[in-house]
Inverse folding.
């Protein structure tokens, strides 16, 4: 019977093999770590936002889709959202719109090009948001279309024909000085009440009775920031309504774009407050935005559509969202003559005028001389014959 003899493995060889295995494990861990460093920034570059198209309560400018037809608004790009805004204002979409983008617009907008609202309320909401906030259709309109938006690092342009055809009303005019009366007026507008603090100004209690009771206090930083932002938005909306009333007096009123951004949503993530405070702020934001849109519906007689865009980030490094750009107008080319040609024309006119006067004077003198000679000539047979006198 053959037996194999077992030789012991040297200690040096076992240590070298173990060190080799450890080095390979460290290399794999390092490779995995650096791979994450590369992938994570790329994953953050593609942020996802949401956009809401809110139809009018008295006119239908957006397609209505029932849950049974199986239609879902696919994700859109910012340029496609800008093209939809241009069409709602009554203008043609940009020529750079792709075929898939045209199909998405066809699934959102009504096919009648002669029936457009020509007024759009576009609000960009910056900051991280709760997906439940996007469900604003409970109080704004019966027809609301929601879509995801791919947010990149660059902004998208809303191409408009010219400043004389579109009136742009910004909503970012700051309102620096707040008073208790302003908060009381805003609370009454959204169906609530504001009780001021007698000992300290701008320190009262803000209460709104909706489906649930909303109770906020200005002494809290998050409540104060949110209510102040909503109050500023409310004052800018009232200014837009006054501008619309002035423009409606014209014979041919331009299209109107009411645009701005809202940064008060960052108050929802105040870590020092309880979860109930964030719920109340979220509910107040929904109620206030619904009341503001109803105010615009009443002022514009229902001829306005809302476009609410949730960018999903308030970082300055994030995309700039939608910007308004006016397309260059093609001006007519006139045939302008230079100075030398104009001087030559003046000289020719002067010569012609002089010749005309000289010729007229010569003809006048010749006429006078002929008349004198005719009156003084003797009455003979020849002169009478030349004067067309019939001789018997």
């Amino acid at each position: 019977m053959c037996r194999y003899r077992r030789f012991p493995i040297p200690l040096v060889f076992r240590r070298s093999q173990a060190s080799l295995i450890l080095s390979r494990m460290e290399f794999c861990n390092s490779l995995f770590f650096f791979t994450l460093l590369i992938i994570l920034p790329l994953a953050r570059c593609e942020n996802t936002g949401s956009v809401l198209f809110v139809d009018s309560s008295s006119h239908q400018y957006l397609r209505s889709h029932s849950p049974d037809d199986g239609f879902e608004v696919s994700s859109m790009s910012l340029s496609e959202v800008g093209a939809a805004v241009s069409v709602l204002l009554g203008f043609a979409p940009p020529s750079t719109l792709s075929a898939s983008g045209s199909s998405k617009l066809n699934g959102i907008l009504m096919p009648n090009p002669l029936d457009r609202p020509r007024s759009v309320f576009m609000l960009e909401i910056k900051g991280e948001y709760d997906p439940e906030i996007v469900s604003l259709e409970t109080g704004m309109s019966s027809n609301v279309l929601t879509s995801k938006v791919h947010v990149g690092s660059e902004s998208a342009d809303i191409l408009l024909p010219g400043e004389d055809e579109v009136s742009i009303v910004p909503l970012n005019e700051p309102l620096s000085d707040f008073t208790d009366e302003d908060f009381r007026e805003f609370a009454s507008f959204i169906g609530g009440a504001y009780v001021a603090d007698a000992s300290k100004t701008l320190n009262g209690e803000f209460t709104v009775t909706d489906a649930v009771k909303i109770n906020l206090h200005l002494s809290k930083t998050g409540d104060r920031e949110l209510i102040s932002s909503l109050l500023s938005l409310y004052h800018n909306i009232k200014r837009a309504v006054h501008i619309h009333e002035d423009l409606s007096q014209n014979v041919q009123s331009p299209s109107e774009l009411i645009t701005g951004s809202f940064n008060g949503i960052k108050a929802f993530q105040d870590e020092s407050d309880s979860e109930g405070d964030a719920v109340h702020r979220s509910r107040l934001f929904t109620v206030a935005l619904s009341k503001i849109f109803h105010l615009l519906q009443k002022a514009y007689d229902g001829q306005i559509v809302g476009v609410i865009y949730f960018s999903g980030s308030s970082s300055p490094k994030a995309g700039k969202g939608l910007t308004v750009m006016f397309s260059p107008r093609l001006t007519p080319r006139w045939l302008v003559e230079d100075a030398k040609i104009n001087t030559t024309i003046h000289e020719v006119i002067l010569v012609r005028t002089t010749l005309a006067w000289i010729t007229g004077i010569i003809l006048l003198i010749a006429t006078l001389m002929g008349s004198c000679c005719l009156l003084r000539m003797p009455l003979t047979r020849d002169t009478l014959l030349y004067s067309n006198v019939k001789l018997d």
